[in-house]
Amino acid sequence: MTQVEKRESADTPVSPGPPETAPKRYRYVVVGLVTLLLALLPLARPMIGQPFNYVMQMGIVVLMWIAMSSSWNLIGGFTGYISLGHNVFFGIGGYAAGMFLLYYGWSPFLTAALAGLIAVAFGFLFGLITLRTRGPSFIISTIALLLMTGLIFDNWEFVGGSNGLSLPLPPFPIEDLKIPFYYAMLIIAIGSVYLGYRVAHSKFGLALRAIAQDETKAEVAGIDTRRMKIAAFSISAFFVGSAGAIWGYSLSYLRPTVFFIIGVAAQMVLMVIIGGRGTVAGPAVGAILLVTLNEISVSQFGSSELNIVITGVILLVVLLFFPLGVVGTLREKGRLPAFLDWD
């Protein structure tokens, strides 16, 4: 190379790589602002006006589903094991917090984390049993686990049996009753999404994704797949159980048909599939879309069969055009907004 060529080479600007650093910093700002707005939402009561309680209730529902779907994503998304009985931990957490309240006077706002840990303990126990199976056998075993647990609670008089248990209302003014539930669910939802983010960027998450891709090859590579799966199954129960504790208290009534029905698990699965399995932001996106879709459909068509048909058609369209979920498909096409790209 001549001196002139060297000089021209030095003067030529180097083409920068993909503009990732700035968008990644930008996404933290966006997520921080969204979190701040959600935290300040109850203070906007004068602007919201009469629909304030409705807005708070919708917020509680959306945040609850974000927490539950993000938790389910650890086992169903990252690990690839479809659990259709994961709401068993939702019920265990709800009943655990309810019993602490009735027998010891401990508020579920204080015992939600403890209820989550109890759910983790049961998750470990159930994982030892169900994770001996794979594929369709695992799905069936989780359904059997859900039905069995629901039947036990339905006939267990100590927890109210099929009649359920009534819980005392929180000691708050009636006009402010939904605000503490909203903040509790907000904390649980943030914790669940953050857990997913930490798992996605850890060796543990890498091992789970290897299991989802090819479990046999993962075992050959030296990954203790059974231990990893049980860990994912157990950890994924924590925020589901905590959400159950707050949700049961918000209803002030515990009944097996509220918690131990397969429809709850199906909702979690749908939200993750719509948003994007194995992604961090996907479950939250799926939860927001599905809850919003359901609310619009009910408001327009009521709780009729037509509402169910329309909802099913819209979901089918979404799945056809977004086969990897909204987040997964947009990422594959290079159109995913930076603030949703957390993987």
List keywords for this structure.
single chain; mainly alpha; two-stranded antiparallel sheet; 17 helices
How would you classify the helix and strand content by structural class?
mainly alpha
Strands, total number: 2
Distance between the termini: 43 Å
Radius of gyration: 23 Å
Helix content: over 70%
How many helices? The count is 17
Spatial sequence of strands, sheet with the most strands: 1-2
Task: Provide the low-confidence segments as ranges.
Answer: 1-21
Strand content: under 5%
Structure description:
The protein is mainly α. It has a domain at 53-261. It has 17 helices and two strands. The protein has helices at 3-11, 21-40, 45-48, 52-78, 88-104, 108-130, 135-155, 178-200, 203-213, 215-220, 225-235, 237-251, 256-259, 262-275, 282-301, 305-321, 325-332; strands at 165-166, 253-254. The protein has a two-stranded antiparallel ribbon with strand order 1-2. It starts with a helix and ends in an 11-residue tail after the last helix. Residues 1-21 have low confidence and may be disordered.
Chain-wise SSE layout:
Layout: H1 3-11, H2 21-40, H3 45-48, H4 52-78, H5 88-104, H6 108-130, H7 135-155, E1 165-166, H8 178-200, H9 203-213, H10 215-220, H11 225-235, H12 237-251, E2 253-254, H13 256-259, H14 262-275, H15 282-301, H16 305-321, H17 325-332
Antiparallel strand pairs: 1-2
Helix pairs in contact: 4-8, 4-9, 4-12, 4-14, 4-15, 5-6, 5-12, 6-11, 6-12, 8-12, 9-11, 14-15, 14-17, 15-16
